[in-house]
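Quick one from the shared queue. A colleague (R.T.) flagged General stress protein as missing a structural entry in our internal table.

Convert sequence to structure tokens.
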Amino acid sequence: MDSINQQQPEDNFENLEGNEAWKKMKELAEAASSCFFCSNIKTGLPFSTRPMSPQKIDDNGDLWFLSADDSHKNDEIGKDPFVQLLFQGSAHSDFLNVYGTAEISKDKEKIKELWQPILKTWFTEGEDDPRITVIKVSPTQGYYWDNKHGNAIAFVKQLVGAAIGKTLDDSIEGKLEA
């Protein structure tokens, strides 16, 4: 444990497993204001990062994205299916790091299920655009950083801690495992 966390009067680590882990992952991922999709993570090359939004996070914890079949991302996943997803909910909380395995398909039923009209910006022929692929990311592990009681209470704790010279914050973090 690092020196800052050792100064905490409250326990601020909680590793989560199984359904509890995937429930936390889904909660943070759905609340996120941004997501970065990283590929090429195990090739030894610098990994590639791009902003993407999951179209769906299902009850199994799988994350679903739509992508063009000729994209760099699809090419990279074809060579290395291991990916990392980075989520940020706010400037002060709701951070999530997820590792997983990506699969690409052209499942027409899944495309219909995930389709939203705004996607026509990229897929100009609509949901029948022949370039659309589905990327399914099945998480294998993750790590989260959050506040136990929300940003307002975390902020008050920080103010009090600064005033009395003691480490007081409302943070909680831990591993997410299957």
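The mean pLDDT is 88.
The domain at 18-177 is CATH 2.30.110.10 (Pnp Oxidase; Chain A).
Added to the table.
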